[in-house]
# Entry
Amino acid sequence: MARASSKTPRGTSSPDPMPERVDPCLAMLVDKPPKGPDWAFEVKWDGYRLAVHVEPDRVRVITRGGYDWTSRFPSIAAEARQLGYETLILDGEAVVLDDEGRSDFGMLQRALGKRPSLHDRREIIFFAFDLLYVDGWDLRRLPLRERRWLLDPIVAGLAGAIRLSEEVQADGDEFFRVACAHGLEGIIAKHVEKPYRSGRGEWWQKITCKRRDSFVIVGFEPSTVPGHLGRLLLAARKDRDLVYVGGCGTGWSNELSRELRKLLEGMVTKAPAVALRRKGAVFVKPLLVADVEYRAWTDDWKLRHASFKGIREREDDSTVFALLRNDSQGAEER
# Structure
């Protein structure tokens, strides 16, 4: 069993009741990292946000929405009991790492799924990045730098189901560049002098590594608003064929929505360019290419958080996103 830390919270006088649940602090999305000595950075993990509650007679693993998912994370719950504290609340993210050490949401979903999978729940890791309560002391009133000072001896050096999400004191722009170059989802910036505040605010900021590529438009879904576009259906190249990779339903104004709908209605075909059955879909001739900004790929090669950025004619396939023959190997262009 791990030893309890000799560190004690500062500025406290009497024991505090343990919260039944703490609404999590959520990061605000910004375009670029903040600057200044009061900011520290962490990797943005792509998983499930969890709070681990160690209580005298039980351990609870609580989701961001307040659901008790202890049974889904038995390894995390078991290791939390061995940390050496009677009461404790850790804030962090549950992930599954790929061979390159990157968090993969698809792998996490498979590990938690009911169907047989190459991944199981023993692969799930909880990266702790904040300490909210410990042995009678509510730490949320303390600045982040003190909460991290208390967190480090509890989980630093652990290499099992619970680990420390490392904090980096670095130039934000450079850390962000390196994170994106390594295929990470992005970074989180946290103000080290701020207390823990539930809800979304500027004291925690997230900067995501966005990707932008071109995809062939193979159809659309009408909007519930007459004459408007609901969603574009997109495809990528795979050998000589087109493969459906999902769609996007944001990124255009009301005026552009009507123009795109009218343009695509002039290209309707009864012979879809991709093998896809989708109720309400209208298929079009694959003559146009959409420039799309997106976050990442799902496990089954569908776009995540795609947003429309522009349209052009399909003069050739040189700039259209291409998939390798073997999906497990990844894609040619990222």
Q: What stands out?
A: Helices lie at 74-81, 105-112, 144-155, 172-181, 254-265. Residues 325-334 have pLDDT under 50 and may be disordered.
